[in-house]
Each structure stands twice: as C-alpha cells, then as structure tokens.
Design a protein that fits this description.
The protein is 12% helix and 35% strand. By secondary structure, the chain is mainly beta. Strands 8, 9, 10, 11, 12 and 13 form a 6-stranded antiparallel β-sheet that branches. A 5-stranded antiparallel β-sheet has the order 1-6-7-3-4. The chain is globular.
Length: 252
C-alpha cells in the first residue's frame, strides 16, 4: 500500500465544505533537521514513512513520491511536512479532523489519531512552466479532469505526442493519474480554461533512467521514442476543466 493511494480519497474530503476547525493542529517533533531550502507548494517529495495508530499499531510503512501542498495527501500530512528540508526526519501526530475524520478504512478505524515518522529523502527539481496564452476561471487542481490538446516529446529531439494530429477532440486526463509522469501533472496544476502552457520536465519526473519500456503496446523498442534520462517538453492547450466534487468521492 502506498501513501498516495491510501490517503488520496480522504484528502479530497478534507478539502471540502466541512473543513476542520482552526483549533485542530498537527503536533510536530523534529528528530533530524535537514539541509537546503524548505519544501514549497508544488515540489515533488520522496519520503520514507511509518504510520501508526494512537495505540502504537502500525498500519503502513513504505516509500512514496507525491506533490506537496496540492491536496494529494490528507491535510494533516501537508501541514505536518511544512518547513521540512531534504534529509529531515520528523514525527507527526495528526488529529482525526486533519486525517480521515469519521471515515473507516482498512487498518484505520474511524476518528483515529494518526502518528507518522517521516524522513524526507528528496525534493525534486521544479517543473518549469511558461504561459503562452492566458486563460480564465479557477485553475486545475489535483484530482480534476482536464480536456487538453498536447504536443511534445523529448527536449530537442523527437516529437512523440501530438493529440491534435490524432483527433479533433481534446484528450481527457485526470490530474495526478498514476500512469502519467508526475511532472506532467505538476505542470498542469493551476492551468485555466483557454490557457496554453509550455512545460519542461526533468528526467526524474518523467521517464527517469528507463525511458520507454522494452516493448510497449505499439511494439516500439527500448529507447526508440524516449531514451533514458531524457528531459521532456510539452505544449498543452487546456479546453475544459471538470472540477472535482469532494462529496462525490466520499465512499471511494
């Protein structure tokens, strides 16, 4: 079980109309203070973590990579990580109102206080974006569905994606979907309807040191489309946003 998969459904509830009262706080204790700049919204973080209930029962332990400060994890996790630096180790105590509330999920009873030990292993380099054409309205958030035209590929190399050439209709994409390079989702955060944006993604947030798998569903060979350790660049035109409704995902 990964942290992102475990915490995502209830993260969306925590951001809904029944937001926790301001007096509820996350308790923090730094065991190790890291070095370098502190985390900022939109950073891609890789953490090792152990999650326990108040009685000491461990419900999860793993490594996870996620976008910080965009609602991908429960609110208490985002609040608890605030100010951490790479290499830091911190203990968090998260009240139910900033975790899962009265929801009951596997290994975590309703109204549970959660305790995490977190080691911040890495803060990934920022995804570089540039607005080409401004849009309007509320920007895209994690969990929204966006309808886009996307063109791009390897920086300075092959153009391997061109949805306009393949269809006259925009492609529906869920911001944060697990099959997308995490850098692409990070680059689309905040995009508005009608906006066109250029996104430059470092290898660590794209296809890393593997490139394209040895043979994909279309029969392409390894490296024939995206070589290992490739920077990727895309131009995205956002046509429409379907904003996520927290009430609709309460049971997922």
């Amino acid at each position: 079980m990964t942290l992102t998969a475990l915490l995502l459904p209830l993260a969306l509830i925590a951001q809904g109309p029944t937001a926790p009262p301001t007096q509820d706080k996350v308790l923090k204790k730094d065991d190790v203070v890291g070095t370098g700049p502190a985390v900022q919204a939109g950073d891609i973080l890789t953490i090792d973590y152990i999650g326990k209930l108040k009685d000491g029962t461990t419900f999860d332990t793993s490594t996870s990579t996620f976008m910080y400060g965009v609602g991908q994890v429960i609110k208490g996790m985002d609040l608890g990580i605030a100010g951490m630096k790479e290499g830091g180790k911190r203990e968090l105590t998260i009240p139910p109102s900033l975790g899962y509330g009265d929801q009951s999920i596997p290994k975590i009873p309703s109204n549970s206080t959660l305790r995490f030990t977190i080691t911040l292993k890495k803060i990934e380099p920022k995804v570089q974006t540039a607005v080409i054409t401004k849009g309007a309205g509320d920007g895209a958030k994690f969990g929204d569905t966006v309808f886009i035209f996307i063109v791009g590929g390897v920086k300075g190399g092959n153009q391997v994606f061109d949805s306009k050439a393949q269809s006259k209709d925009p492609v529906a994409v869920g911001v944060g979907e697990s099959h997308l390079p995490i850098g692409l989702s990070a680059g689309m955060i905040g995009m508005e309807e009608g906006e066109t944006r250029h996104i430059l993604i470092p290898p660590s947030l794209a296809y890393k040191d593997k490139g394209i798998p040895p043979t994909d569903q279309d029969g392409h060979k390894a490296g024939s489309i995206v070589p290992p350790n490739s920077w990727m660049e895309f131009t995205i035109q956002l046509v429409k946003i379907e904003h996520h409704d927290p009430k609709q995902t309460a049971g997922q």
